[in-house]
UniProtKB/TrEMBL annotation:
UniProt GO molecular function: methyltransferase activity
Protein's name in the database: S-adenosylmethionine-dependent methyltransferase
Lineage: superkingdom: Eukaryota
InterPro entries cross-referenced by the UniProt entry: MeTrfase_7, SAM-dependent_MTases_sf
Amino acid sequence: MASFPMNAGDGLYSYSKNSHLQKEIIDGVKEMVRDVIIRKLDIKTILSSSNTIHITELGCSVGPNTFSSMQHIVEALKDKYLYQDQLIDSSKSIPEFQIFFNDQVTNDFNTLFCLLPVDRSYYASGVPGSFHGRLFPSRSIHFAHCSTSIHWLSKIPKELLDKNSPAWNKGLIDYVGASNVEIVNAYVAQFERDMEMFFNARAEEIVPGGMMVLVSPFLGYGKLDESLVDSFNLPLYLPSPQDMTKVVEKNGLFSIERMELINIKSNLVDEADAKTLMMSLRSSIEGVIINHFGSKIAEEACARTILKSKEISEWMKVNYEKTSILFVALKRK
């Protein structure tokens, strides 16, 4: 659910008001998250030295989606504790829950905490920093959750910015549609480097037997200065099940408890609601566009796209593929 700080609050194009696509994804996998907690999590083991369950939301942005996810996870953990594990000492009280909301240091944590539900059943803390590195003390996290964030790379692959490189990404802003395999390989290599850092950091932080759920979008394999466009690339890669299996097995510190590629019903995509979809995407990536092109051009580009929403909706009805989501549940060995 990560986003950039621009328009993070309550403005017209804020993430909190326009993160409809991310909400559809979260709602689409809720029962899968509950299922892996009930079936796969050894709550007795992870609570052997504490009666507080520590949860982290990696890439929390500013809400409200993150609060929905966290409350759902807390309720599932309570049910697991109360009804699913008869081996736990019944004299113990229900665990307390501490949630660490993490995102980049530029995230609007003020807005996040102003929107915290007053009736929440957990204690809340903010942890600024990139999830590609260490964020928490060793063996301190019991459950980690990362939704629609893991596809953001730590940086743009350097090969894409070198005009003399075979991976020079002329005329495109990402790898989709690239005819040059070197471009795709540069994205894949950066994704693999990032995930190795990510898994090593989480392996230090998550207790043995603790779990992590990753949810990522997935795509099938497939008036501006031209030089600015050629040098602009989105720092994201949407991993396939094969990509994720490769990086997990190479790291060797987690076991794959469940991995599934699913299609979710999307009102934005299935009903070709281009205007709402464009506003949702704008709330997530506008910061990247502003950083590269400047706010004036970014504003004009986004406004022109919204004006063409009817035309885009017609194109979506014919060409747009159904939304696919990669769901991955991992357990710390």
